[in-house]
């Protein structure tokens, strides 16, 4: 049996001057799902083992989670310790972006 722990990123406001990243969320090596709530495809989901080196996450089919948005949802296969959302430069002006992360953690017996 598994337990689903829901966590959510705070809103991130895009910038016309460069990429913006959300705060880091600890997923502790567990598998997790992410749902993006964004107005367009400027979002990438990044994972890290140490909060210093970040790389683009891949879904369970091996597809990189970059250029996603508009209620995109995917399961993440990496066993990363941390996850964050990156929003690329937004020439259309500042907009709010958010992502919901659901961490699948095995319940203790």
Report on this model:
The chain is mainly β. It has a single domain, classed as Jelly Rolls (Sandwich). 0% of the residues lie in helices and 48% in strands. Strands 3, 4, 6, 7, 8 and 10 form a 6-stranded antiparallel beta sheet that branches. Strands 1, 2, 5, 9 and 11 form a 5-stranded antiparallel beta sheet that branches. A hairpin with a 6-residue loop joins strand 6 (43-48) and strand 7 (55-56). It starts with a strand and ends with a strand. The mean pLDDT is 81.
Using brief descriptors, characterize the structure shown.
single chain; mainly beta; Jelly Rolls; five-stranded antiparallel sheet
**Broad shape:** globular
* Architecture per CATH nomenclature, i.e. the level-2 architecture: Sandwich
Here the CATH topology equals Jelly Rolls
Secondary-structure element pattern, one letter each: EEEEEEEEEEE
Largest sheet: 6 strands, antiparallel
Structurally, the number of domains stands at 1
User: Which percent range describes the beta-strand content?
Assistant: over 45%
Rg measurement, Å: 14 Å
Reading off the top of the CATH hierarchy, the class is best stated as: Mainly Beta
Helical content band: under 10%
Question: How would you describe the oligomerization state of the chains in this entry?
Answer: single chain
Uncertain stretches = none
Number of helices: 0
End-to-end Cα distance, whole Å, is 9 Å
Question: Would you report the number of β strands?
Answer: 11
Structural class: mainly beta
Average pLDDT reading: 81
């Amino acid at each position: 049996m598994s337990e689903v722990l829901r966590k959510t990123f705070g809103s991130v406001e895009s910038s016309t001057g460069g990429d913006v990243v959300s705060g880091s969320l600890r997923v502790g090596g567990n598998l997790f799902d992410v749902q993006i709530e964004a107005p367009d495809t400027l979002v990438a989901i990044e994972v890290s083992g140490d909060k210093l080196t970040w790389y683009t996450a891949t879904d369970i089919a091996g597809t990189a989670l970059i250029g996603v948005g508009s209620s995109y949802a995917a399961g993440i296969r990496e066993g990363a310790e941390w996850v964050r959302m990156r929003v690329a430069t937004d020439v259309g002006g500042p907009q709010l972006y958010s992502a919901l992360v659901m961490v699948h953690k095995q319940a203790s017996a």
